[in-house]
Automatic annotation (TrEMBL):
GO biological process, one term: methylation
Protein name as annotated: 2-phytyl-1,4-naphtoquinone methyltransferase
GO molecular function, one term: methyltransferase activity
InterPro entries assigned to the protein according to its UniProt record, in alphabetical order: MenG, SAM-dependent_MTases_sf, UbiE/COQ5_MeTrFase, UbiE/COQ5_MeTrFase_CS
Gene: ubiE
Amino acid sequence: MTPPAVETTTDADRIQALFNRIAPVYDRLNDWLSFGQHRIWKLMTVKWSHASPGDICLDLCCGSGDLAQLLGERVGQTGQVFGVDFSSAQLEIARQRGENHYPPLPIQWIEADALNLPFANNFFDAATMGYGLRNVTDIPRSLQELHRVLKPGATAAILDFHRPSNPTIQAIQQWILQTIVVPVATANGLQEEYAYILPSLEKFPQGPEQIRLAQQAGFAQATHYPISGGIMGVLVVTKRHS
Ligand SMILES: C[S@@+](CC[C@H](N)C(=O)[O-])C[C@H]1O[C@@H](n2cnc3c(N)ncnc32)[C@H](O)[C@@H]1O
């Protein structure tokens, strides 16, 4: 006898559905909620990835594509960027963003899972990831996949929220999330979607733990840079030269 089909909703399904739902307002909310600062943090991330003109680059968990676009501007017409995300709604916005850019940027948008990347080993010269590591369901696996697809000696820069070590700044961060971010999101009908930031941040490994996970994934060098008083951080990882 065939067992009845069991419908299971995994954490990954829920995260995918969440980012599909928030796609239409995602960019606008990021600008409001970070007072435009996320643009500066993303520029720093591209710089720290060491992406150069002519490089083949990866932007993992690219969402609506702004970081991939910055990478595209950096590598220029002789380079190539692959923006990867598993949310089709976010990728659709990324595509539209790309259509408005002149001259067109060398970016391909790929719907795929960061935990199982559709690329050969040792393929990329550099990579970025913005606010993706906190959202994947398996951080060690995602770092292993990133390590696998980077060329020997290549660097990736991973930007995300961080819990500041200074208790006053930590209290300010919590206050901003609870009294500005969630109410603004609620006003846009997205209370549930943005209320998840604080709990996800509480579970997210701190800088030293991120370094340990990167080393376990095989990276020869890993450094975590707290930025903006430690409310954000960039993990910079480099694969061993062969
Ligand atoms: C907070 S958004 C960040 C988007 C963009 N990088 C930015 O900096 O604004 C996180 C993105 O990660 C994507 N994501 C989460 N888990 C993923 C996975 N396993 N594979 C691919 N994309 C994933 C979500 O769909 C979402 O677009």
